[in-house]
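Researcher: We're teaching a course module on how sequence relates to structure. For the next exercise, students receive a sequence and then see the predicted structure as tokens, so they can try to spot secondary structure elements on their own. Here is the exercise chain.
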Amino acid sequence: MTAATKADRRMIVMLGMHPASKKRGGISSVVDVYAESGLFARWPIHYLGTVMSGSMLGKVRTFASALCEFLVLLLNRQVALVHAHAASRASFWRKSVFVLVSLAAHRPVILHLHGGRFIHFYRDDCGPLRRWLIRFILRRVDRVVVLSSQWKRALSEIAPEANITIIFNPVKVSSDRDQPAARNTQAVLFLGRLSEAKGFFDLLKAAALVKQQCPNLELRCGGHGDVEAIEAQARELGIASSLKLLGWVSGDIKERELSQAAIYVLPSYAEGLPMAVLEAMASATPVIATAVGGTPDAIVDGVTGYLVEPGDIPMLADRIVRLLRDAALRERFGLEARNRARQLFSTETVLAQVEDLYAGLDVLPRPIESRGKPMSATSEQVKCEV
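Model: And here is the predicted structure for the students to work with:
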């Protein structure tokens, strides 16, 4: 085998959630946009799912199988670069195994951090030894990618020597020429886990206040949660008739919900850079969100939407009422939001930064003649079952 042929076999191993997982989150959404925008076709990316939702046994099997396959790729000198998508807690520790093995094999690593609670995870959940290991990894990987300027400042305090780069999440932005959908002028949309951490129950309490002034309110909520508890609280708050639980929404259904909603609301207590906020902006839907994580990098308060403080239910209700009552304001915010999404978060802008990162670590794109045949986690590479 010639040196050129060997180089052609070297690949970027990207680590994330298994594509067949039923429960998908922000990392999966980002990887989906990467794939749909042609990144996997342009670059020799081999995707490995390191976890799958379901039983603990299934999770262990998925992790062990991915690690086994990864070790075979390393031993065969097929790995040019490792791009590890991680959040906090178990997600970080799973990826840290792959990262440490890669460092031992002298392979370059990009650690791409998602989720909103990494700093809390480091400070509150980890003892001295685990904090030391986190700092060691942050210092030793070739690049740490974060989603916001706030994250970069916080991680720079933890590991000043780390090579930290901000790359926003990408989103497909609708064209100005697209015919806008007929919006439900009283529909407030929420997408995400139906949990306290996402501010969902704050939103229910705010909706009770909103309904006093906007009796035709329709609160449309897509995501997983304790449906019985949610419906019981809605009855207690007097908003049961206004609440529409949609289940998990994705694809065309998500696009339709975003394009038809009057407002998108995400009152989280912690975030990275939430994809649903970017998707709402890209669809020209005004957003009300809390000023946490990377959200202030996306939302300009009073220009593209409103920012509120986490847990401030009266303020949240006030901003919802303002937008529901003012169609001209909603339209102005929506158009400004779409323009900002196009400038900062479009797939063309963000993927160019990712590709510059790959090129800067001496990885070559796929030859032109082989594009359109992206490597997958299940087809072209050796399997290692457990």
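Model: If you want an answer key for the exercise: Residues 162 and 176 are 40 Å apart (CA to CA). Residues 1-7, 376-386 have pLDDT under 50 and may be disordered.
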